[in-house]
Amino acid sequence: MAARAQPISPWPGVAAAALVAVVILGTLATVAMRAESSGRFAPGDFAAIRFTLVQAVLSAVLSVGLAVPVARALARRRFRGRTALVALLGAPFILPVIVAVLGLVTVFGRGGWLSGALGAVGLPPLSIYGLHGVVLAHVFFNLPLATRLVLQGWQEVPDERFRLAAQLRVEGWAMWRLIEWPMLVRVVPGALAVVFALCLTSFAVVLTLGGGPSATTIELAIYQAFRFDFDLGRAALLSGVQLVLTVAAATAALIAGSGAGFGAGQGRAVRRWDARGRMVRALDGAWIVLAALFLCVPLMAIVLAGAPGIVSMPAQVWDAALVSVGVAVASTCLVLALAVPMAAAVAQGRFGVVEVSGLLGLAASPLVIGTGLFILVRPVVDPFALALPVTALVNALMALPFALRILGPGARDVVAAHGRLALGLRVTGWRFLLLILVPRMRAQIGFAAGLTAALSMGDLGVIALFADPETATLPLQVYRLMGAYRMDHAAAAALLLLVLSLAAFWSLDRGGRWHAEA
Amino acid sequence: MKHLVFAAGFLSATATVAVAQTPELTVYTYDSFVSNWGPGPQIETAFEERCGCDLNFVGVEDGAALLARVRLEGARSEADVVLGLDTNLVAAARETDLFAPSGVTAEYDLPVAWDDPVFVPYDWGYFAFVHDVDMTPPANLRALAESDTSIIIQDPRSSTPGLGLLMWVKAAYGDEAEAIWEGLSDNIVTVTKGWSEAYGLFLEGEAEMVLSYTTSPAYHLIAEEDDSKAAAVFDEGHYMQVEVAAAMETSDTPELARDFLQFLVSDTAQSILPTTNWMYPAVMPEAGLPEGFAQLVEPEKALLYPPEDAAALRREALDEWLRALSR
Question: What is the total count of domains within chain B?
């Protein structure tokens, strides 16, 4: 089949994808080769794989399933505070795991607010521990992300479609069938794949809220292989299983989500004329209020826990905050440099493999990447001198899948809509990138950058494997304070982290939307 | 002005030379040791004052990750000293043949005899369940298993105290260990990845007791003037954690490494450890224990497997644990 001429070459994107794949598969291979014997499964591993799959599927389906009505409500309604709420949706996702878990436990735990309220009316306390607790926490982490991804699908429907729909009195069921359902078919599989991959490698949440060793995930089995048995072969093997599962999910999502787009519009702010009935409005309102409560109450718990200690926080916390901001800036630049060309390659429709390679970052165990990088760089330089660059790199690889998810569909639409005209006018290559692709995708790029910055700031990453006393990031400092019994200061540092991450997210995300309605 | 610039240039040049001649000692340890709130900074200052050297700490998560790191690096490791293994890891560490005799002599105040030529103990503690003072704790692990007291423990696969509890139950109950774990399974609210998560959840009120150390209440007493926490004494005895350091065979400054190990058991270092690492000193400092430690409970019986037994038993103990709690 002869390839159609394209205004922008896919090869930089393919090269970026290859680079990502080389880093992830290369580190895995390095660990495997360093092993004394080839890896074998241990008896408990299959139970771990099964449990991992069950919780990841449940978490993904619930997170995305709930995200659809919430995003729909947010897409249809304009209200005071909507912008702030949409920005807050980034918050749970970027918190260090331990902080988010403590926030959730303050609300839903046995001694939590909800149990207190139940106790007041004579009911027994809730138990958050078990599969349901794991899923609850994963929905808390991922519902907001899924909502943003699905909401973006709605926002990418050109205003002209809604105008036409309004003129033709397309409402309710017809609106769903003609516009919303085809849009969801394109967006939902990708969101499911991202959340699934994210939950696949989750470990501390699952163990803490899972209530015991029956909640053993693959990542915990890797941990055990690495540090309890020092069996690098098995660690690499299990990490390979994670990769295969993620690639399978990503490929399935890719096939399911490859529908046609809505074509071009003039990019005006979207206005809606449908769904004005009282019932629909009340229903949308209820979804928004419920989602906001579910997300904001645990965040409130984190704020309340941290506020008293914030003035007396030790100076090292501020130093660490500075380091974290630096790491976040570096990984954001790196992600954009990788993701924009990759999205451009994805946009041409023939390079699904690019998207799959982007997802690998989520599936790779940080322990295995960190160890592999460590073995690789050690003969050349002192790995401890590279603690921060390596942390920034690994954080970037973890954030890349999200950036791709956000940029991919938009890039596809831009290339489809403007590619031929640009070719005709000979606006190609760099000029197409700078004059057409980037400006048209300002909002998506801002969102992706904000998410990466926040994620990189909040993630512990691999710093714990490499740190020396002077180069602590803020999440590491939170763990160190907790490890030194200083729970109050840890809570305050966590609050600072929350504020910084949100500020980074909000400013970049807003920056992208400058001059456009949210 | 020119003179100043010249002088500054000259000074910095001599300073560079001085640094180049200063021997360097690299010590790998766990992360909480090097943190600003751990013993690291004070130990570093105190040792550098007397050694005329540059002491570099490198923090690696925790004891087990530390050993994994050293095994990964093998003979090419930069480390001169590894600090922060415990008796559960010593046998595996010895097997690597990477560690050299310490040459350290000291009058240890440990509840067990210590004559290992390689591994130098620098502090120790008893594992214990910590609780609020207003509850009456069970008298032993069996009573705990039979009661409906809620507890939070750590996973032995990812945490040092978690592994400690595994050995504790095994040392106290031998073949009955699995039955004890089955009895405990309904007391366990949850199992966490590490100590911090467990202790954090306990302070949030998620359980009545948490697996920690008998020395934990000392932190609350000394640093927070809070006497609301206590450690429960169990009559079957308490498993110990003895933390050790050792010099690397491959060190390019073996004498300095030995000096550092000797310094670790000196009065200076031993008086720093109790209120920074919150453990008992391996050698009693002349000034005795800090106030607050006197109020701590003292178990009547210390349990500890020799390193080789601990290594031989832990696989079996882990399988029993997994079987009992996965049911």
Answer: 2
